[in-house]
Amino acid sequence: AQSVTQPDIHITVSEGASLELRCNYSYGATPYLFWYVQSPGQGLQLLLKYFSGDTLVQGIKGFEAEFKRSQSSFNLRKPSVHWSDAAEYFCAVQSGGGADGLTFGKGTHLIIQP
Amino acid sequence: DAGVIQSPRHEVTEMGQEVTLRCKPISGHDYLFWYRQTMMRGLELLIYFNNNVPIDDSGMPEDRFSAKMPNASFSTLKIQPSEPRDSAVYFCASSSLAGTYEQYFGPGTRLTVT
Fold it and tell me: Per residue in B22-33, pLDDT tens?
């Protein structure tokens, strides 16, 4: 069965500093990988996705992520965070074909210090 | 596009009562997913449909839970009888393989069972 691990429950970053959120997955074949963001009381919004091709993918709000097959990782990065980036971030994996449900990590709570 | 619509947004009920959550997917989407989010278990897939047919209900916790999709624009998730441990946020999402595999999430229904 597929699984996702987000090792950091909470991360605190100063506004303007760079950010990296870690995600490791377990899946037998090439997975489809996603990062979602959830603001308090809101639904989930897709930041970016990886299906195939270029392992560095660009998303919305200045986020990017890099797929590293050898490390089974899909880490999310942003060069300079803004106070509005404070939220819960979820990494998710989907089995090949795209028709299945998503398996989510437990999430990383991002806190932005002024 | 109005996005995925869920109702009600909040539901408070007493233990033993029947609860019905509703979802309207994005028009033209042929996949519909129900997820549950709790502090303990995070986000987990309950069931998903393709062209109104249930494909995988292995995530449905027990027989008290049932889901239906009578047509392409409406789905329900019913809990009967409800229990305090069912308290959670329930999300509906929809997607289409005609475009990307992106799942669009609704705002969720926060269920509290007392």
Answer: 999 999 999 999
